[in-house]
């Protein structure tokens, strides 16, 4: 078998180096996107992983690679799998279908069933749907969560959205925007069932909270 020429070996080495650089850059962009989505600073992530802010910065800029141990620590701190750190192409082509009957949800409380629509690898926002029985609400008190941008859209029925001292009656197709740091509450004040959608960016829920959503099924068909 003929030996590879010096020029051929150089070309192969250059190609391998270019591929490694692209891989580092893709990993860095994905890492930065996940970190920002979780509102973590470089220092926050460094402290959580036992590394340094300069190392995380270089990793995000594609200037260095990381050991398997470091990647495991980073993935754990971000609440994702190591595979997801390399899922940039999957994120760009994510066309996951979620059937209405398969929506992960929390058990109904205060006449409201809250369901999670957004799922990995899309992680820059959270999307939920709430179904309210007549008189149902998000709870007896207003609540806050983080300081993100939230939009509520009424899909069906009539609801009252309380934002601090302000109260807004919204009907099908209406929407309202506010920061999640504003005390808020939603109640179905109509004569039938109501349904709303919440869109939150960046996400404010911790991974442990999202893990509580399951494919809960009602005890009997509606």
From TrEMBL:
It comes from Mesorhizobium argentiipisi. Keywords: DNA-binding. It comes from the Bacteria. It holds the Pfam family Cupin_2. Residues 31-85 form the HTH cro/C1-type domain. This is XRE family transcriptional regulator.
């Amino acid at each position: 078998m003929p030996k590879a020429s010096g020029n051929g070996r150089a070309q192969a080495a250059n190609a391998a180096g270019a591929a490694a650089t692209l891989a580092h850059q893709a990993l860095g962009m994905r890492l930065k996107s996940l970190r920002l989505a979780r509102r973590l600073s470089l220092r926050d992530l460094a402290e959580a992983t036992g590394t340094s802010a300069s190392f995380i910065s270089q990793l995000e800029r594609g200037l260095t690679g990381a050991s398997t141990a470091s990647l495991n620590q980073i993935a754990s701190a971000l609440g994702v799998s190591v595979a997801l750190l390399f899922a940039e192409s999957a994120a760009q082509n994510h066309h996951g279908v979620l059937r209405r009957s398969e929506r992960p949800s929390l058990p109904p409380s205060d006449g409201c069933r809250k369901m999670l629509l957004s799922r990995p690898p899309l992680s820059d926002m959270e999307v939920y749907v709430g179904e309210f029985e007549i008189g149902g609400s998000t709870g007896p008190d207003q609540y806050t969560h983080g300081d993100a941008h939230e939009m509520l859209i009424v899909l069906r029925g009539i609801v009252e959205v309380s934002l601090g001292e302000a109260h807004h009656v919204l009907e099908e197709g209406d929407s309202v925007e506010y920061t999640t740091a504003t005390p808020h509450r939603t109640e179905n004040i109509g004569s039938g069932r109501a349904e709303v959608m919440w869109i939150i960016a960046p996400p404010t829920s911790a991974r442990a909270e999202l893990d509580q959503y399951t494919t809960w099924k009602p005890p009997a068909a509606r």
